[in-house]
């Protein structure tokens, strides 16, 4: 009838498949980025050299969120969301550090939601 060993073997296979699918999802959804050790951070809650956990599919965004946006030439820029346009989701972004002025909407204007590479979920010093 039902062999307990066959049931255990089948359970292990299902568990392994679930673990691999979950790991695949996590690696495509989240990424770790290290801020450059030299220089400063335009967002005061993070320091140069910090590690950042970034959600690559951050929806919806809200004022106060720390985000990485694609700047000129595709370079990632760390900034804060200040305003979200309700009609199309465009963002007005600025840094909050007086000592380290960063890239933002003052120079780039409204940033389309498609220009956001990710929302920073967590940051820590290594």
Helical content stands at 10-25%
Nearest-integer average pLDDT:
89
What would the CATH topology be?
A: Umud Fragment, subunit A
**SSE series:** HEEEEEHE
Q: Based on CA inertia axes, which overall geometry fits?
A: elongated
**How many domains is the backbone divided into?**
1
**CATH architecture, please?**
Ribbon
CATH class reads Mainly Beta
Structural class: alpha+beta
Fourth-tier CATH superfamily name:
Umud Fragment, subunit A
How would you summarize what this structure contains?
The chain has helices at residues 4-29, 105-108, and strands at 30-34, 51-55, 66-70, 76-84, 91-94, 116-124. It is of the alpha+beta class.
What would you say this structure looks like, in words?
The chain is an alpha+beta fold and 126 residues long. 24% of the residues lie in helices and 29% in strands. The chain has two helices and six strands; from the N terminus they run H-E-E-E-E-E-H-E. The radius of gyration is 20 Å and the shape is elongated.
